[in-house]
């Protein structure tokens, strides 16, 4: 792991901590937006995932496998040796 990855990881951790702090401050202050914004972001994220899965299913290219040929019927050698 290089230093750039570690720096990005710490930046993400600090950003999450700041967002959590702002959320708690908003909740304690009785702000409607403190709940509405995170819920809206989460709902839109989940709906985006659902749309992506639906799009993937709708546009997948599936090749139909050819049906296997039936196996030849076995010949019973006890009854087919010679004329009847």
Gist?
The chain has helices at 3-28, 33-59. By secondary structure, the protein is an all-alpha fold.
What does this structure look like?
The protein is mainly α and 84 residues long. The protein has a domain at 3-57. Helices cover 63% and strands 0% of the residues. The protein is built from two helices and no strands. The radius of gyration is 32 Å and the shape is elongated. The model has no long low-confidence stretch (mean pLDDT 87).
Which residues sit in consecutive blocks of at least 5 with pLDDT less than 50?
A: none
Distance between the termini: 82 Å
Structural class: mainly alpha
Gyration radius from CA atoms, angstroms: 32 Å
**Helical fraction:** 55-70%
Describe the global form.
elongated
**Residues in β-strands, percent:** under 5%
DSSP helical segment count: 2
Largest sheet: none
The mean pLDDT is: 87
> How many E-type strands?
0
Order of helices and strands: HH
Set out the fold topology:
Blueprint lengths: L2 H26 L4 H27 L25
List keywords for this structure.
2 helices, 0% strand, elongated, 84 residues, mainly alpha, single chain, 63% helix
């Amino acid at each position: 792991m290089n230093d750039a990855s570690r720096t990005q990881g710490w930046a993400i951790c600090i950003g999450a901590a700041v967002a959590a702090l702002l959320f708690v401050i908003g909740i304690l202050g009785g702000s409607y937006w403190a709940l509405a914004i995170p819920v809206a972001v989460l709902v839109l994220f989940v709906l985006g995932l659902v749309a992506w899965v639906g799009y993937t299913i709708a546009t997948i290219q599936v090749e139909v496998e050819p049906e296997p040929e039936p196996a030849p019927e076995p010949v019973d050698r006890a009854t087919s040796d010679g004329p009847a």
